[in-house]
Amino acid sequence: MSILYLLIPLALVLLALTVWAFFWAVRAGQFDDLDSPAVQILLDDDRSPEGGAASDRDA
Amino acid sequence: MPQSSDSCCFHCGGVLVPGSRYAVEIDGRTHTLCCGGCEAAARLIVAQGLGRFYQFRAGTGATPSAAARNWAVFDREAALRRYTHECADGERELSVQIEGLHCAACAWLIERSLGQLPGVSDIHVNAAAARAGLRFDPQQVSLSALLARIHALGFEPLPLSFAGGAPEWTAERRAALKRLAVAGFGMMQVMTFAVSLYAGAMQGIAADLEQFLRFVSLLVATPVVLYAAQPFFVGAWRSVRSGTLGMDVPVALSIGAAYLWSVVATLRGEGAVYFDSAVMFTFFLLLGRYIEMSLRHRAGMQHDALARLLPQSVLRVSGARAERVTPDELHAGERIRVLPGERVAADGVIASGASEIDESLLTGESAPHARGRGDTVLAGTLNLSGIIEVSVARVGQDSTLAAVARLLERAHASRPRVADVADRVASWFVGAVLLLAAAVLAAWLVVDPARAFSSTLAVLVVTCPCALSLATPAALAAATTRLARQGLLVTRGRALERLARADRVVLDKTGTLTWGEPRLQTVRMLATRLTRARCLEIAAALEAYSAHPIARAFAALAPAATGATDVHPAAGRGIEGCIAGVRYRIGRREYVLEGCGAAGRTPPAAPPGGYTCVALGDATGLLALFELADGLRADARATLQRLRRLGLTPLIASGDGAAAVAAAAAKLGEVEARAELTPDGKLALLHALQSAGHRVVMVGDGVNDAPVLAAADVSVAIGGGTDLAKVSADIVLLGERLAPLAGAIESSRGMLRIIRQNMTWAVFYNAAAVPLAAGGWLEPWMAAIGMSLSSLLVVLNALRLLKVRRAGAAPQLRPAARAELHA
Fold first, then answer.
1. What percent of chain A has pLDDT over 70?
2. Is residue B33 in a domain?
3. Last residue of a domain, one of B16, B39, B67
4. I want to staple B496 with a disulfide (CB 3.0 to 4.6 A). Which of B18, B666, B711, B748 is the partner?
5. Which of B103, B126, B185 is facing A19, going by the closest CB pair?
């Protein structure tokens, strides 16, 4: 069971990293608007206004 | 799913006059529009390749105005300083409140469209707050160009004076999220260790490993208690200092006691630890708080009433020089020139010129007043026909408009608050819990001191008023969300509860049961020289030069004939202008007859009462007579019938003449009606109903209704109404329909039913759990889980409110959009 003395501190380090990452995301405004981004992926269009497919050119 | 039907405008959803020629083509389909404003906005959207907006938006938008606005005043140094903030690299930051933005698709549209402008380096539109944050390079793109683009898309931009940083509620939300995350992650870890410890207690565990696990638990629980649970300690301290017992007191007591006890036990290496209970308790309480806060933020839409009623620019005159400045730059004693269609920027006295002034904002009266030299005009009123010069007397906070806004604020503050009652009840409940806990502690100290602490802690945790305090906000949040989908905005949570109990509904007539503005009823052709359609075109072209409500009725009807030249408005009488070489006059009959001299025919009999008559003529005689009247809303009768079926007796309270009110009441199906009421009379009527024991819903629009709205048990404003009324109402109907009101009453009653179920459950749960905890059969961790499950049940029950008849309410994809997604 002595492996626990390594694994648990390791888990704590990961915990600290997770909390830090979450704080960063909150500060960066990732949670300020939870409604718009869900729809934006549907709305964003690869076609240019003229009707040509921009993504085709990229491919 | 229905294809965009041709009975409504494709862009704004407004009523479409048959034969409208405004149209826009999207992916090969032609869609009909109601007016030039919608056409311009729709064409701009399609031309930028953003036509998908129409497939994904959650509802139709406001009708944009066709008139181009001059935004140049925002390029003045004073405006730039006030509304933007300079960053280190020379770019400027701007924050804009956007009216008419109500769904994610609107936000996307604005982001894409403005993002295409050169010089815009960053834009984020928050749909929930209806706010846009921009970063732009003033060398490449001007502030006025940005605002003009938002306006051209069919929205109304209101630049906010730069306060620096994110708005207050963003900061509150971010702090709450961080605390929630610390508590959540901490809870997962501590629970893992706790399960190991419990398993170890049963199966045997090495003493040093056990002590290690306890220390690790202490390490993780410390930030949870000291950081995440801070609001509870602060709240408890505040309520103890003010001599009351708030909900926070037992919460802080149980978290603090569990933590301190466990710290001592860990350091001494003996006795039970309760880190798991403390941490879990903190997390679930924070979760409840977070839900409640989200609801509060959604409800508390911040409006700056003054900012939106004052014009954004004003023409200042000094000697022969005239320049556009922002209203902030005005001072008393200066002189301003107000053009037709502009709002007056400050209180003052007319120094020269004469015009008709629309004061409906302050008086609620829709008929304009003739004002001339020496008359007083007030800030926020609308100049309809002539050019006037005003000598400024009072600006900004000294103006009458600001005083009205302050009065409204005070009216809100003095309202009876249901929340106080809830707090008093909570205080008793908390007192009882603390006494009970003390009694349990004393009893166990006598019987079995070893189990005294854990049993007392279990009592404190299990009686947590979590389910009780979540029962109402969760149901409110669900009901509010559902109503928003139906086109109804609840600005105060308490309103829904009172709406469910209401038994009377008092409705204003003008602007509430009726459209509030004249609409064309009949066209009488008096000459055969021109067709009916041509007459309407000419009328629309000439009336485009006036901001009078009557003129707006024409703009919506027909595309204006092009090429009107040499146009002269005659204040209060009519307009003269040349189209294709022919001189026409439109307006009052006498004015038009003057224009055709002796050739004029005697006009036919006057139209029936309540109608306004507009004549059109050329040099040889009258061409047509247009009769306009304010009509009832299409769904007024059906809505009143539905309200009656729900047990609400409707009553019309109007300031209009008895004949007009009686006619409307008859058309609506024999509704009781009172006519010729002053605002005081309406207020007296309302008080009489309330003292007779009725709970009254007041539906109105004008600002003269504002005191009546504020005194009603529930106030409802129609979205088309004036802005101040919107701010003061509990509930705002978005759009032009009355029907959502009846739906709101059904929803609010459903909500009340759910709240009662939730309360019953919370009481039942406490009654069952407290004896178990006091008897020592519950460990603190079991109490925490029980408490959480109870809360979860309450929230899930509330979510049922969202499910009821959901079909049709969710944003709909048109078939074309779905096909594309599947392709």
1. 59
2. yes
3. B67
4. B748
5. B185
Contact B181 A5 (CB under 8 A): no
pLDDT in tens, B594-626: 777 644 455 555 555 556 778 888 877 778 888
Residue B227 DSSP code: I
What is each CA distance from B411 to B86, B499, B685, B723, B807, in whole angstroms?
A: 39, 19, 18, 17, 39
Residue with tokens 């390079």: B137
What are the chain B neighbours of A4 within 8 Å (beta carbons)?
Answer: 209, 212
Could you tell me if B24 and B108 lie in one domain?
Answer: no
Q: Are residues B406 and B466 in the same domain?
A: no
- pLDDT tens figures, A3-31: 889 999 999 999 999 999 999 999 888 88
B248, B276, B358, B508: the catalytic one is B508
- Tally of residues, chain B: 823
Nearest CA in chain A to B181: A19
The mean pLDDT value of chain B amounts to 76
Q: Identify the pLDDT of residue B563.
A: 64
Lowest mean per-residue pLDDT among B77-81, B279-283, B382-386, B570-574 = B570-574
**Would you put residue B87 in left (φ > 0), alpha (ψ -120 to 50) or beta?**
beta
B376 and B340 in one domain? Answer: yes
Secondary structure E strands in B167-313 = none
User: What CATH number does residue B603 fall under?
Assistant: 3.40.1110.10
Do B511 and B649 reside in the same domain of the chain? yes
**End-to-end CA separation in angstroms for chain A:** 54
- Residue B230 and residue B96 in one domain: no
How many separate domains does chain B show?
7
CB contact under 8 A, A36 and B125: yes
Of the candidates A8, A19, A35, which has its C-beta nearest B182's C-beta?
Answer: A19
Residue B621 lies in a domain: yes
Closest alpha carbon within chain A to B174: A26
Which domain does B56 fall in, by range?
1-67
Q: For residue B174, list chain A residues with Cβ-Cβ distance below 8 A.
A: 26-27, 31-32
Q: Is the ipTM of this complex over 0.90?
A: no
Mutate one of B185, B203, B217 to test the A interface: name it (highest A CB count within 10 A): B185
- Residue B622 CA to residue B284 CA, distance in Å, equals 76
One domain for residues B372 and B257: no
The vertex-B208 CA angle with B219 and B194, nearest 5°, equals 50
Please check whether residue B812 lies inside any domain of the structure. Answer: no
- Among A18, A23, A48, the residue with its CB nearest the CB of B49 is A48
B701 belongs to the catalytic site: no
For chains A and B, CB pairs below 8 A equal: 83
Q: Give the domain ranges of chain A.
A: 4-47+54-58
Indicate if the pLDDT at residue B338 is higher than 70.
yes
Q: Which residue of B has its CA nearest to A40?
A: B108
Q: What is the CATH number of the domain that holds B97?
A: 3.30.70.100
Provide residues of B within 8 Å CB-CB of chain A.
47-49, 52-53, 56, 103-105, 107-108, 111-112, 124-129, 166, 170, 173-174, 177-178, 181-182, 185-186, 189, 206, 209, 212-213, 216, 219-220, 821
The reply to whether B545 and B430 lie within a common domain is: no
Is B206 domain-assigned? yes
User: A45–B52: do the CB atoms touch at under 8 Å?
Assistant: yes
Per-residue pLDDT tens over the stretch B506-527: 988 777 888 777 777 778 777 7
Q: Across the beta sheet with B582-587, what order do the strands follow?
A: B519-525, B621-629, B612-618, B582-587, B574-579, B564-570
Same domain, B609 and B705: no
Indicate if the pLDDT at residue B543 is higher than 70. Answer: yes
- pLDDT for B449 equals 85
Q: Which two tokens stand for residue B108?
A: 């996307």
